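Appendix C reproduces, verbatim, an entry submitted by the partner laboratory led by Prof. M.T., so that reviewers can inspect both the input and the predicted structure.
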Amino acid sequence: MKIPGYNNIILASGSPRRRHLLAQTGLEFSVMKGDVSEDYPEGMEPEQVAIYLSEKKATHFSAELQNEETLIITADTIVLIDGQILGKPDGYDGAVAMLETLSGRKHVVITAVTLKSLKKATTFTDFTDVYFKPLSQGEITYYLDNYHPYDKAGAYGIQEWIGYIGIERIDGSYFNVMGLPVQKLYRELMNF
């Protein structure tokens, strides 16, 4: 599948989940990785944090925009509960604390996606409500020991064991929780 006017699509992300999801759309693209600090200004509204980080990543890769037929896609996903952003855990204890916080409760997953070319850029967001059942300490330990979700916001992947046994329901896009709202992305790409 091609995007009209763009022959060189770059997914600027190290996430294997985003790479897999984008590939499932049939889009032809290349992948570029780079270290971009995920720091953001204090006091920023949570939705703005996801937007800020996605646009920061797009700016970081702007040098790759060599011609008008190149399009860069970046994204950032955050987990929000009680107004607190849960980023990637800082090791085992941090992951335990995050999963204990999510246990038996609803949280919101927010993903911001940026499309950037030489001529224009746009960023959109998607929101999904996720409801976890109460998780036992044994379930949390089993998940962390076997899946090591330290590269995931909120310390979990919905497509992994914890999603099968722990998530009671979601309101919104399943793929958004994985890190890329592909339905919305496809629409945005077709209109870009």
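Residues 126 and 149 are 22 Å apart (CA to CA). Additional entries are available on request from the coordinating office.
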